Amino acid sequence: MTFIEGFVLGLIQGLTEFLPVSSSGHLTLVSALFGIKEGNLFYSVMLHFSTLLAVFIYFRNDLINLIKAFFRLISKVFKRNKNKTDGYEKLVLLIIIGTIPTGIIGIAFSDFFESLYTNVYSVGYALIVTGIILLLSEIKVQKKYSITTLPMYKAGIIGIFQGFAIIPGISRSGSTIVGALLMGLNKEEAARFSFLLSMPAITGAALLEVLKINTAHITFEWSLVIGMIVAFVAGMISIGLLLSLVKKDKLYYFAIYVFALAGFIFIYF
What we know:
mainly alpha, globular
């Protein structure tokens, strides 16, 4: 892996992990266009951990409060405390409920999803699906819930949106934000819940990949360091950019982009 390849893959991973354009779809396309390999599994995992670190730092206050709330819930279970859950405790439960269907879908269809990563045409079709999903954000749904008043079953539905975004070309952030909007959250809370829901999803996926790593094949490369730094910085930038565009109701901008990218794939290949 050269320095330039490390920089390019880190930049693509960081920018597209959180923008609603599908990071997996872009990495598949770049590999097909330029013959760049993502590198070994260890390289891929470390890039994902870099973007995960970006969302952890960006939402560090929420993360700290969620961790405290999680242990409060555990304490309530052991003490059989039936006091009403506070806002962050409810949010912990919503994230758990939203993560369950994602995990089930990912495990049940893992072999099928992995087969799509080598098929650039499937990425093109999936990008069209992403574009359609993003256009659904224009549908006006009554915004009657905050995150902490969202019914549990609706968090599960949002988790299903996230689960099928494992398909390369379908955006995780786009799917979950639009899913949350359709479930009645306002745009700011939909984006926030999408990012918070991404934490266990990305962490779980990366840890599963870690288990597949052959430690004998792990080698230190400066290109990996460059890729990780670039992925982290680009991830921080893309989070702020997406939150800004969601507030301005500009998600359809990304729909135009992914439709154009899908057209390019079908014409070029």
